[in-house]
Amino acid sequence: MAARKPKSTKLFVLDTNVLMHDPTSLYRFEEHDVYLPMVTLEELDGHKKGMSEVARNARQASRFLDEIVSGREAEIVEGVELRGPSKGMATGKLFLQTQATAMELPVQLPVGKADNQILTVVMHLAHQYVKRHVVLVSKDINMRIKARALGLSSEDYFNDQVLEDTDLLYTGVREIDHDFWERNGKDMKSWQEGGRALYQLKGNDCSTLLLNQMIFQEAEKPFLAMVKSVEGKTAVLESIKDYSHPKNAIWGITARNREQNFALNLLMNPDIDFITLLGQAGTGKTLLTLASALMLTLEEKRYSEIIMTRVTVPVGEDIGFLPGTEEEKMAPWMGALEDNLDVLNQIDSESGEWGRAATRDLIRSRIKIKSLNFMRGRTFLNKFLIIDEAQNLTPKQMKTLITRAGPGTKVVCLGNIAQIDTPYLTEGSSGLTYVVDRFKGWGHSGHVTLQRGERSRLADHAAEVL
Asked: Which tens digit of pLDDT belongs to each residue from 294-303?
């Protein structure tokens, strides 16, 4: 095998958690070879029962393996070509462990443990193929540390990560300097349309702008605009509505900073069907979204109802089975919704206690709380769908949810990628990071990363010092 293959191709040994995280990982190593120890198959078998995402992935990985190997049993020792099953995505080979290894691990590592058996296999391959680079791929940090301690190469599985560094994630906002106008404003045209000012610019910078990106320039009277269209080196900027002014308040809420103003412009825009709002706790994501949803649903009657859902990943221990309907079972997870409704309800001080109670009942009747578990096969027509804590979703779950949207539905994803509670999900591979990256520049989507916390001086100080 070593003689036949060029030296540059590597041999990747996969840990079970890689297959359970992404079943298509078998096809993601391009021209390199993939090796599966027998323990990996054994562990896959142990995780295949159940309805969890991990169990589904384990079953899918087993189906892929069956597809690759069936009818090619004679090739297993020499390696099964992946080019056919992967439809050209991978050009390497798949090797399955067919014989026991004779390597000895240090005495401190118990032989019975699955992780240590995989390490034995990696060590055996490294000795057998001296001229090849043998690498262990695992999502388990301790496993990678053990491998390095034994002098073996190991790395994380990066293929599903949208970005290597989340600092590079699209923020949806761009600051321009005074020179921007010098460089791109030579043949500038401006006109008024529907109460907004529009500016057509030409220049090299225009080609780097993205549709629905927010543009600002610091000045005594700051310039705030949104990219309306981009064609080659020509772009049209449109001035935005000032939601920080009390006369433009949304359900009594005004924008307290620039990013909140941008977010409200996206939320109230009928042409935008998909919005992602990122930001730390207290930046106002849920409050702004709910205020906009109530305004558009109850006042403007653009949507028939508000649907709110979130991933039920507990931070502490689970609280066990809960009695009641789907709505009642979801209630403990929806504290954030209740808190924000309290804020929105307090604003109307003139209507008195009875008026507020009536308003609250009317609002609650138009907000439906749904569990993610029952979303498959549904279609939402003319609904305002809010997905809270979206950072805990995998890209696949995110796709399942967003494809539920029928005509006239607006989907808003809220989250903070620094607070991921789902095992095996990282900031780079979270479904929220995935959709922000994939949807940027689409004409009917918008994104804003909220920067400033607006809760209280105590919360702001705690966020900084703790």
From this structure: 889 988 899 9
